[in-house]
Amino acid sequence: MNWDQIEGKWTEMKGKARSSWGELTDDELDQIGGKKDQLVGKLQQKYGLEREEAERRADDWADKQ
C-alpha cells in the first residue's frame, strides 16, 4: 500500500500501526494522520532510530499493508 492510500485510510490503519509500534500513543497516532514524514519523526524520537532506519521501517510496514 502506498502512503497516499495509508493517509486516506489512517483511521483504519492506526490499529495496525499501534500493534507494530506500541510506544506510540493514540494522540501521537492521531497527530501523524497517516503522513510518512510524521511517522518517521515519531519513530526517531520514540525508538532512537536514525532517519534512514526509521524510513526503512515505515516503508516496510507500508509494504505489508
UniProtKB/TrEMBL annotation:
Q: Which Gene3D superfamilies match?
A: YjbJ
Database matches in SUPFAM superfamilies: Hypothetical protein YjbJ
Reading the lineage from the top rank, the first entry is: Bacteria
Q: Could you tell me which residue ranges the CsbD-like domain spans?
A: 4-55
The family database entries (PANTHER family) matched by this protein are listed as:
UPF0337 PROTEIN YJBJ
Family assignment from sequence similarity: Belongs to the UPF0337 (CsbD) family.
The protein depicted here goes by the name CsbD family protein
Highest classification ranks of the organism? Bacteria, Pseudomonadati, Pseudomonadota, Gammaproteobacteria, Oceanospirillales
